[in-house]
Design a protein that fits this description.
Layout (H helix, E strand, L loop, with lengths): L17 E2 L2 E2 L21 H9 L1 H16 L3 E5 L27 H13 L4 E5 L7 H8 L4 E6 L12 E6 L6 H5 L4 H7 L6 E7 L7 H11 L2 E6 L4 H9 L21 H17 L8 H7 L25 E4 L23 H9 L9 H18 L5 H4 L9 H5 L7
Parallel strand pairs: 3-4, 3-9, 4-5, 5-6, 6-7, 7-8
Antiparallel strand pairs: 1-2
Helix pairs in contact: 1-2, 2-12, 3-4, 11-12
The structure holds iron/sulfur cluster.
Length: about 425
């Protein structure tokens, strides 16, 4: 594992500073080296020519654009500040966390959702702590919103009437989950969502678990569910404690120390990428991870160009008119994003990175390589945020992100 002295917080843009996870190369011109927003938009001529020459590519592009339309404008709301687990390095319960009041009357939640709907929001994101602990609020949202996603730890079944994608997090295999999450939820989560087409498991890959991926994916295959892969994205608190060699506690920093922690080195990322590529080719219906996207997500350095505060300037999930964030008190949150304490320089989660590429199409239209990456990433986002039976978007079977060209019949020489 990485030496503790090399673990750092984010660096300022243009500093050229390197850390254990790679230098922040804002001048890099290769697709995989380039952070989102790290290079200006170029002429869209390459995209226009590619589309003019290939009808199958035009169909794929039209589908990708429907994905983009379907997941905006967004309301993200913290459903509750209560959780039943203690995940190591949790980005929600950081040291400065103060719970806000939560309306207990579901009527207040219903009125809030109505106001969001009237304001034009059409995609709903429910996170928390653990939203499944307050299902009456989710059911109230389901009376209005057709599309949405619930980030859940999988310990509780969700009521069948709730229409949203169930994004069930996994932090390791059966033997390691208790260490990392403070409770052995692994089998329970698989049982609770077995064969549920609305479930999309989210494997949070870290230094603790990437070697377990073959066994985890085998269990997902047996449970009849599919999954995407995000990488452990540390909070400022976690990074500070690790580099200060702070004592462990009995909450969200129970075991980490210099020789046993969650952070992946660049060598770990490269090994994980190779494992995932092999697993995706063996189980394309289970592991919904684009190969080019995963290679980009595991490349060295920040995946975002950072502003003067060290925040991801082009991150699509920051509070903006097209993506508004609300706390459990149903008021706008002041933090940079829903992952308040997460360091943008180390953020490698699917929802933020895919939508940031998707909604920055102008940055990926200047070359064929960029454009194909943009389409793959659009399908990665679509398979994460949208149900497979969303006929308005998919108009048939949804494409596997790693095999979207074959799915649409895009010519082998298109790249
Ligand atoms: S999701 Fe939050 S932590 Fe991650 S890059 Fe975006 S703004 Fe930064």
């Amino acid at each position: 594992m990485s030496a503790i002295s090399l673990i750092s917080r984010s660096a300022a843009p243009g500093s050229g500073r390197a850390d254990a996870f790679g230098a922040f190369d804002y001048a890099g011109d290769s697709l995989h080296d380039r952070p989102i927003g790290g290079a200006p938009a170029l002429s869209v001529r390459a995209r226009s020519e590619a589309l003019a020459n290939d009808p199958a590519l035009r169909e794929a592009y039209a589908t990708a654009r429907r994905v983009r339309r379907a997941i905006r404008p967004v309301m993200t709301v913290e459903v509750t500040a209560t959780c039943n687990l203690f995940c190591e390095g949790c980005c929600y319960f950081h040291d400065d966390f103060e719970a806000k009041p939560e309306p207990e009357d579901v009527g207040e939640w219903r009125a809030f959702f109505q106001s969001q709907w009237d304001d034009g929001k059409r995609y709903a994101i429910f996170h928390g702590a653990e939203p499944a602990l307050k299902q009456d609020r989710l059911m109230a949202a389901g009376e209005l919103f057709e599309r949405g996603i619930i980030y859940t730890n999988g310990t509780l079944r969700l009521h069948d009437s709730i229409p949203f994608v169930r994004n069930v997090s996994i932090w390791g295999d059966e033997d390691s989950t208790e260490k990392v999450r403070g409770g052995n939820t692994y089998r329970k989560a698989l049982r609770n969502f077995e064969n549920d087409p609305r479930a999309r498991f989210s494997i949070i890959v870290s230094a603790q678990n990437y070697r377990q991926l073959p066994d985890i994916v085998a269990d997902l295959v047996a449970a009849g569910v599919s999954a995407t892969i995000s990488y452990f994205s540390p909070s400022y608190s976690y990074l500070d404690k690790l580099s200060a060699e702070a004592p462990n506690d009995n909450r969200f920093y129970r075991f980490s120390r210099s020789d046993d922690h969650m952070m992946m080195s660049q060598e770990d990322f490269e090994q994980a990428d190779a494992i995932i590529a092999e697993l995706t080719s063996k189980h394309p219906k289970t592991l919904l991870q684009g190969l080019d996207y995963n290679k980009w997500l595991t490349a060295p350095g920040s995946r975002y160009a950072l502003d003067e505060d060290g925040f991801a300037a082009e991150c699509a999930v920051r509070h903006r008119s097209a993506h508004e964030l609300y706390g459990t008190d149903l008021k706008p949150i002041e933090a940079k994003c829903a992952l308040a304490d997460t360091d943008c320089a180390h953020c490698r989660i699917v929802p933020a990175s895919t939508t940031s590429v998707l909604h920055n199409a102008r940055l990926y239209a200047g070359s064929m390589e960029d454009f194909l990456f943009w389409i793959e990433t659009a399908f990665q986002a679509g398979r994460f945020f949208l149900r497979d039976d969303d006929a308005e978007v998919w108009r048939g079977a949804p494409p596997p992100p790693a095999a979207w060209r074959e799915h649409f019949g895009v010519g082998a020489d298109a790249g």
